[in-house]
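Quick one:
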Amino acid sequence: MKNLGSRIAALRIERNLSLSKLADESGIAKSLLHRIEHQEAANPELETLQKIARALKTTVGDLLGNEVVKSARQLPETKPLWLQKLTEQLRALGKEPDTDFLEAMYVLQNRKGQKSFKDEDWMFLYQSFERTFPR
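Output:
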């Protein structure tokens, strides 16, 4: 199940849950959660996925990658380095970053497991959002 672990980790971070807290809330061993989040070939049982989904207040379908509408997405308190850099670059250009665009980019990064974007790629994506969704 490609990207399952990165989706779980992204949801966990979005909900400001530590791995230990998710383990407590789901009733699943922290070591198992760690393996699921970090091993690309992880293939947990359906019951395990159901416990994780309940603790994350989502569905198994979402964990497995089915596209569903999300009512709330938020950036973590500690922004990843790429997002900090993008925010600084935009402010240097005299722009106040649009939170909706940043949240969408954060979700894209964490849901699709893209770890190799360059700073200029993030700026291009942000500017594409600006052109596509003028405010």
